[in-house]
Amino acid sequence: MIGEDLQKFSESRVMRTIAIGPCHEQQPVMSADRDDEGGYSSPIEEGDTSQVSEFFKDRCVFITGVSGFVGKVLLEKLLRSCQRVRTVYVLMRPKDGQEPRQRLDQLFTCQVFSRLRKENSRLLTRVVPINGDISLPELGLSQSDTNMLAKQVSVVFHSAATVRFDEPLKKSVVLNMLGTRRVLELSKRMSKLAAFIHVSTAYSYCNRMEIDEIIYPENVSPQKVIDIAEWMDETMLESILPKLMDGRPTTYHYSKALAEHILATEGSGLPLAIVRPSIVTAAFKEPMPGWVDGVNGPSTFIIMTGKGLLRTMLVYKGSVVDWMPVDMVANLLLTTAWHIGTHRPDGVKVYNCTSGDLNKVTWLDIHRTATPIVNRFPSLHVTRYPGGSFKSHPLHNKIAIKLFHTLPAYVVDTLAWVFGHKTE
Ligand SMILES: NC(=O)c1ccc[n+]([C@@H]2O[C@H](COP(=O)([O-])OP(=O)(O)OC[C@H]3O[C@@H](n4cnc5c(N)ncnc54)[C@H](OP(=O)(O)O)[C@@H]3O)[C@@H](O)[C@H]2O)c1
């Protein structure tokens, strides 16, 4: 029974995080169900028979961030596996001269929707774009859209955020904290709200040695941070950032942690859950193995290695690479909505969506697995024969960077200049 599987999925997972150093070395933990062959089996069946699909039957769902990496896969999986969903309203802002309707039509031409387009394209007509922007008061929604969403929607997924690590605090506050508060305010007006699922990050509390599925206290309240971000100029903010962030490396991690606080304090009594993925990477199986949205994080590492450009990296070979396939994140988001909506647990549930110690993959494993693959299937744009190695000593790595990255770059630039080409 899929219901029993899901019950096991949500209750038997070990979700404890052991951080053994700075952020990139931490080791969050989660085990996904394994099928008979030891592979991952999606907890949501295709077709219309699972309890998750049953939960979404006739529901109206509201999603933010569908044009992003996680949002695209979430939307695709919801439509494909929960086909009796009534309407999916997606919040989109106008961008690059395109209105939300045009953006959505373009989104559906992405490869990630190719399976859906082929198998059941009419499902795409259930998706309705809503013109809005999380950086604006009341999400920039029209009064009629606000009223309609408040009346119709019963499940909310909030995935929109700025994920830039170098974002100034002001912008992170507006998008990640105020944006979350605004989606929460809208959700409070939803008379049928059954589940509000917020996408956070496993690194919100990367300043801690262990990260359990709880929200930890902060030294400064979110409202105080919002207030100072409003009146202080960026230079003043910069000077107090290290103290505020309390060991976290970026405004991204900090603002995501404070957004969790906003939900916990201002959303009490609501059916709320926070899902914290680690580093989201290419799909394991769905909608197609290996699908990834552009060049970011882990895919940058693979691409640069494949091109032969990346020759050295400061990595402790035994440390865990906490990459989480995007389809597993989407599945956990959907099953969390089902769990919250059907079980109505007390308080805010937190799920660390991480691999860590149980399904451990170390950098050494990545090296051993990826090296033969990039050699066998070389990139179309190989610059040098792929090679190089991880370094576990900072000085060793610095020297290797100078020799194998900087020096060749100068040589190429000089040659380009000599032959009249553009230099970087
Ligand atoms: N990717 C990861 O490795 C990772 C890991 C852990 C947690 N997460 C969390 O997962 C969530 C999704 O991340 P992602 O990787 O999908 O990010 P992404 O690809 O950068 O997508 C961000 C999404 O947020 C939307 N957005 C940004 N500013 C907006 C605004 N002002 N109004 C409306 N929408 C806005 C973007 O829409 P536009 O197209 O309009 O810009 C886009 O749809 C985030 O909450 C992130 O913190 C991601």
From TrEMBL:
**Transcription regulation listed as a keyword:** no
Q: Which UniProt keywords apply?
A: Lipid biosynthesis, Lipid metabolism, Membrane, NADP, Oxidoreductase, Transmembrane, Transmembrane helix
Coiled-coil intervals: none
* Database matches in InterPro entries: FAR, FAR_NAD-bd, NAD(P)-bd_dom_sf
Cellular component, GO, one term: peroxisome
Membrane topology per the entry is: Multi-pass membrane protein
Q: Which domain of life is it from?
A: Eukaryota
Question: Under which main EC class is this enzyme filed?
Answer: oxidoreductase
Q: Which ranges carry the Thioester reductase (TE) domain?
A: 63-332
Question: What GO molecular-function term can you cite, just one?
Answer: alcohol-forming very long-chain fatty acyl-CoA reductase activity
PANTHER family recorded for this chain? Answer: FATTY ACYL-COA REDUCTASE CG5065-RELATED, MALE STERILITY PROTEIN 2-RELATED
> What is the role of the protein in this entry?
Catalyzes the reduction of fatty acyl-CoA to fatty alcohols.
Family stated for the protein in its record: Belongs to the fatty acyl-CoA reductase family.
Name of the protein in its database record: Fatty acyl-CoA reductase
GN (gene name): CG5065_0
